[in-house]
Amino acid sequence: MAKKNVTFFCKECGYEAAGWMGKCPACGQWNTFTEAPSGAAASGKSSRPESPVYKANSFSWTDSAVTVRLGDAGKEHYSRHSTGVACLDGLFGGGITDGSVTLVVGEPGIGKSTILMQLINTFKSDSEILYVSGEESPAQIGMRAQRLGVTRNILICGETRFESIAEQIKEYKPSLCIVDSIQTLYSDEISGTPGSITQTREVTAGIIRIAKTNNISFILVGHITKDGSIAGPKTIEHMVDTVLTFDGDNTGGYRILRSVKNRFGKSNELAFFEMGDKGLRPVESSKALLVAGRPIDSPGSVLTSVLEGNEALICEVQALVAQSCYPNPQRMTSGPDRNRVMMLLAVCDKIFRLNMSSNDCFINVIGGLKISDPASDLAICAAVISSARGVSVRPNTLIIGEVGLSGEIRPVSRIMKRISEAGKLGITTVVIPGSLESSIEKEMSEFMSSGKAASDSLESIVRLYPDNLSEAVDMLFTRAD
Question: Which residues, at least 6 apart from 456, have a Cβ–Cβ distance to it below 8 Å?
């Protein structure tokens, strides 16, 4: 049987088909099929060897594509270069590693280009730095550098064609190359407009080949779509070594930079920044930032502890339950996962009959922090009940616990880490799952006897151990004497 000729492909996901299709069966997008180049189709030969990922090898002056034993691998010396900012070094795993490829993503205007321009000025390396910009002219970059006080004389490349950029890299051999942004680059050998799935994937693969064969560090800037996902192929996240994302409201003053993926260090590390006239500056008291200025004795406001990497962050969760004026009540969240909040609302409505079918509910985590730790379940439930009843919880109370569908409170991990952070912020009461009572009391006794400096603050914390949601509500809305 003759092989079927492929003449059409999807611009969003790369799915290939023999003829045009209105809807792509792979990604579900409409009107994304385009005709493949006629030369490749007529000859029956694939155009893949001409793609950037293969063509990049012609720009490699240290090609070492050989098979080695595990015992012989890794003998090359890969050094790290400090960014000059301690919190940024932590996100990169101790500095930017030679040959690494980092993807920085965030909403427009949140500060991606700003922090990279500041990183250029503090980067600890004597070699050249190449800034490839497909969105701004060299004059605009110069104006921004002057505003931010950047004095380093870097190289600026205004090209968007991959082959030309590769030639510039071969000529100047920089130690760090910043591409702003990856969606503006294209290759002559690939059909499709810049920013399409095929162009972005192939150009990124070519950049990675150059980085690995020449020990050049790359930082790629990526845009996100309306739903918060990275524009372009999802495979970019898997291809690069490190993924850094910006959280927070771009109209506010604070930014949260998170390492979602890191092959050279720990992932889920956080760094807090504040936007000012001179760019982004690190926030020293980042752990107290999320609870600063919180209302006292206000219904719907509670404190919880979530794990982010190796750190336990104390954050404020707010809920607003109000009479709905719509046929279908509104459910909006900013910070926690909306589907999990819907589940918790159903549990609260069944146990306490809050009449949520006729009330709107809004959940917000102060500071723009995105949380996924199930230890915040009990705090979300307490905030909803507090707002619905118009009664505030006990003051200076930290609420920790995962809530099941029957209302039981399940244990969470690293509870002593969370309690220790609570003691540093002046928390007087901690609500903890009852199943952890014996283990916590034993650990607390050992901790107190160790004579550590924080023992005095931990010893004064009142610990409450509810087993289910009803017991937790009785404890939270009962004032301490």
Answer: none
